[in-house]
Amino acid sequence: MSVVSKTIKYLLDKNISVSTAESCTGGLLAAEFTAVSGISKIYKTGLITYSNDSKIKNLKVKPSTIKRYGAVSRQVCAQMCLHLHKISKSQLTFSTTGVAGPNGGTKSKPIGLVFIGLYFKKNVYIEQLNFNPKLSRIQIQKGTVKECFHMLNNIIDEL
Q: With 80 as the cut, is the pLDDT of residue 40 above it?
């Protein structure tokens, strides 16, 4: 059984509600969840908040946080998943933000820099990923989605 299947089965068995807020993954994380029959039992909503305006309007990310740290940051990622929890009332929320390339990278925020946020049991967990910048956009996006499930699986194992 794959990590994705194992993790989704766990969430279904425990009836843990889930929502996703995605930027760099553009809906691929939501697609992993919604590919599973019966997921509507727990999957509440998925938002693609690609622009800064969308993060501010739909997820209530503070404009000052984006201005100070940038959209691709630990701080914005944390606000994305925490505010999604408040909005959706889901027990578990994910957020993704990053630079998937092939353009848009800078010295301080290179292509392949990604943050994953996970809110669960009143805790916000943030993971920073640094993919090889030579990977394709879709490889970085799919790698991020895969890492979301590994991250959740590791947290579940610790409970």
A: yes
User: What CATH number does the domain containing 136 carry?
Assistant: 3.90.950.20
Range of the domain at 74: 17-158
Tell me 136's DSSP state: -
What is the β-pairing status of strands 18-22 and 92-98? parallel
User: What is the per-residue DSSP string for 44-70?
Assistant: EEEEE--SHHHHHHHH---HHHHHHH-
pLDDT digits (tens, 9 = 90+) for 108-157: 999 999 999 999 999 999 999 999 999 999 999 999 999 999 999 999 88
Residue matched to tokens 């959706």: 88
pTM of the shown model:
0.97
Tell me how far apart the alpha carbons of residues 4 and 117 are, in angstroms, rounded to a whole number. 17
Task: With respect to residue 3, please indicate whether it lies within any of the assigned structural domains.
Answer: no
